[in-house]
Amino acid sequence: MTRTRDTLRPLERSLPIALLRAREAVMAEFRPILARHDLTDQQWRVLRALDDAGRPLSVGELAERACLLGPSVSRMLRTMEHEGRIHRAQDASDARRTVISLAAGGRALVEAIAPESEAAYRRLESALGSADLDAVFRHLERIVSRLDRPQEVA
Question: Model-level pTM greater than 0.90?
């Protein structure tokens, strides 16, 4: 019987694992900020996506922009709406669609967290150097553009 250890690359050379480790190292700068504001990573991504869009988004658009799965977004939105962080409404041009926008509570959170988030980015830039941080963004964008292909239907 062949051991997979003999056929698989070492774990430290696994790109998915390396990306997860990098994500966790970066999120260590942001999670304490979010915790102080009683937000999860995913809830913050929803608020950021809505703020960045500057307009209401469909649930599908929101899920894509926030890098979340649709079912996760639907459950999260119920909680966030109850907490006064988002509004849900029917799309004016298509009553079958629901659109999501920032509520006053969500906008206040984004405004409160923005300076803390930018301070975390300054710490990251100081630790990595601006040239390396820019290079990370360029490399990640290149990975996404080269590997982001339409899903094939089996």
Answer: no
